[in-house]
Amino acid sequence: MLGEGEANHMALAVPSECRDRFEFAESFTVTIAGSSWQPAELDLEELVAVVRHRPQGSRLQALRQGRIGMFADTDGAEPISRRVPADHWLTVEVPDGIVHYFNWQGQWYEIGAEYLTVIERRITELLAQPVSVSLPPWTRDEEHEKHDEGWYNRQIAACPADDVAGIRVIGNRIGTTSVGADPSGRRPPCDVALQRHSRPRSRPPTMVLCR
Hints:
Layout (H helix, E strand, L loop, with lengths): L9 E3 L14 E6 L2 E3 L6 H9 L6 H7 L1 E5 L12 E2 L4 E7 L2 E6 L2 E5 L1 H16 L20 H9 L9 E3 L22 E5 L9 E4 L2
Antiparallel strand pairs: 1-6, 2-3, 2-4, 4-5, 6-7, 7-8, 9-10, 10-11
């Protein structure tokens, strides 16, 4: 797969040990197979391209020996993580009939048909439960209009007040939740929040995140 000209079954993934500080990263240092560079953002194609032309059987090992570190500045002078193995920044899915194999943080996992059946059944049960609010449909893109998250948030905001009572659209603004505001200013805690009041002036409304 690493030697092929595409990475359809691969994606970038933030290692568990880097997740808490990832939002503060302004640059990265990447060292793989003798090549080093310092990008502002990680790019899957760049990581794969470095090892693509290596001999078969040595590509994954090169990623495992490679290292990627995070920095809080653009000059790479303020490290906020250790230099993590490069393969821990990638996730891979290999389908084999009804069984899927996943590589995550350097380990392979098997997801069998029985597990998928359980998950699908649980999703069906959740979607079948009644809801207390009614939101407009999220339709497909039109020729001259992309129906992305921003578009859908505007549809909710334009609904009559009686139809979306208790709903607050946060969108790309930074709101405060029980876990605090996003200090990076890069993304909101959620797109839409459902406010439920207990008793008047007894305490702030509870915010149920719906992202």
